[in-house]
Amino acid sequence: MAVKNIVLLGATGSIGESTLKVLRGHPDRLRLAGIAAHTRYEKLAEIAREFAVREVAIFDETAAEKARASGLFPPGTRIHSGPEGLLALATLPAADVVVMAVVGTLGLHPALAAIRARKALALASKEILVLAGKFVMAEAARLNVPILPLDSEHNAIFQCLHAEPQRQVDRLILTASGGRFRDSSAEEMRNVTPEQALQHPNWSMGPKITIDSSTMANKGLELIEARWLFDIPQERIDIVVHPQSIIHSLVQFIDGSILAQLSPPSMTFAIQHCLFYPGREQGVVPTLDFAQVFRLDIRPPDLDRFPCLRLARAASAAAGVAPAVFNAANEVAVAAFLKNQIPFLGIPAVIEHTLAAISAGEPENLDAVLAADAEARCRAAEHLSAVAV
Ligand code: MG
Which of 228, 236, 83 is nearest to 151 (CA)? Predict the structure, then answer.
């Protein structure tokens, strides 16, 4: 069977780690052709040595300089850097699948470049579709390039849809763990510290997404992401809290039947599905154990305690640049919260203020979206002092 060449952008993050786990399990089927990271070049060098990777990109120029001087990479390694470095990796001639797992919207241009180079795009960075879903999906459709959903919820929906005709789909049901504070009172949530918010009950992930999970902004971003990936209006996408993170999402068809995808909470299932799609291979971590008693609880989310969810839905309904504004304001607010500049509940306050400050026109092109994104970041930053601790 043919070997698939994989390029992994965001190799040192948690998705990167899970992707490497899948690659280790299938050395004869999957080959790592290129890797990229933001700054952590020592870890990148370890990966380069383990997988004999010769094409490497480090986004941060200073870190890239250190990497070149370090002697840590195998002889003959090409070390690219900056935004051009990510583009070089995303369009690497040898690549069959590009795994996009860089934090935030940094991956937007590399994602578009990968699509234009006709690479299958396994998309983990949800912010890319939240920011520019209209343009990214249009480009993929125009060039007939598959976008493979790597986020566990969207991958679950992708598996359940199984190419059923659109008209047969009634609703998508996204599951949410509910995050660290799903059972906390409104009063307790007032005094949440970054240290507390960074502890996720089920998933081990990077700081940005862990905070997003604790505010449930993550599920809001996923709602918007699902809207673009599956071309379904937001009012037909439900969100339910499922604390065990075993049902990764569900699809309800027009006849009332519901299909769900289940697996233990490990990203390797979704990643492996993307890498071998449309085929399947042996998994790399233990499966669900039906000899054990386990529970699958479902309950509706509390929009009062998790206003980010309500704001994300409002942004999705407003459409135009509103989702991009939501995302930008959230990124600014989360960064400020992590630096102890604003309280936990300051995050939705900053988002709400920023959404109200920017009119949600329909963007004519990518530049209009990027301008709205930049303006939102300014407005959000200005508002930080108003909610400061
Ligand atoms: Mg997810």
Answer: 228
Q: Is residue 88 part of a domain?
A: yes
Structure tokens belonging to residue 364? 């004519």
> Does any domain span residue 298?
no
- Report how many domains make up the chain: 2
182: which strand partners? none
Question: Residue written as tokens 């940094």?
Answer: 106
Helix, coil or strand: residue 309: helix
Are residues 99 and 188 located together in one domain of the fold?
A: no
Q: What is the CATH number of the domain that holds 71?
A: 3.40.50.720
User: How remote is the CA of residue 80 from the centroid of ligand 1, in Å?
Assistant: 30
Task: Name the residue with tokens 């690219």.
Answer: 80
Distance from Cα 54 to the centre of ligand 1, integer Å: 31
Instruction: Please tell me whether residues 71 and 200 are part of one structural domain.
Output: no
> Is residue 197 domain-shared with residue 76, that is, in the same domain?
no
List pLDDT tens digits, range 300-340. 999 999 999 999 999 999 999 999 999 999 999 999 999 99
Residue 292 belongs to a domain: no
Answer yes or no: do 66 and 196 share one domain.
no
Phi, psi of 295 (to 5 degrees): -110, 150
Distance 74 CA to ligand 1 centre (A): 35
Burial of 75 (0-12, 13-18, 19+ CB in 10 A): exposed
Inside any domain, residue 286 = no
Please enumerate in sequence order all residues whose Cβ is within 8 A of that of 183, keeping only pairs 6 or more positions apart, or say none: none
The Å distance, Cα 174 to ligand 1 centre, comes to 9
The CA distance from 231 to 225, in Å, is 10
Q: What pLDDT digit, counting tens, does each position of 57-89 carry?
A: 999 999 999 999 999 999 999 999 999 999 999
**Are 32 and 23 in contact, with CB atoms under 8 Å apart?**
yes
d(CA 22, CA 30): 9
- Domain range for 205 is 166-259+304-387
CA 175 / ligand 1 centre spacing (Å): 9
| Same domain as 101, residue 180 | no
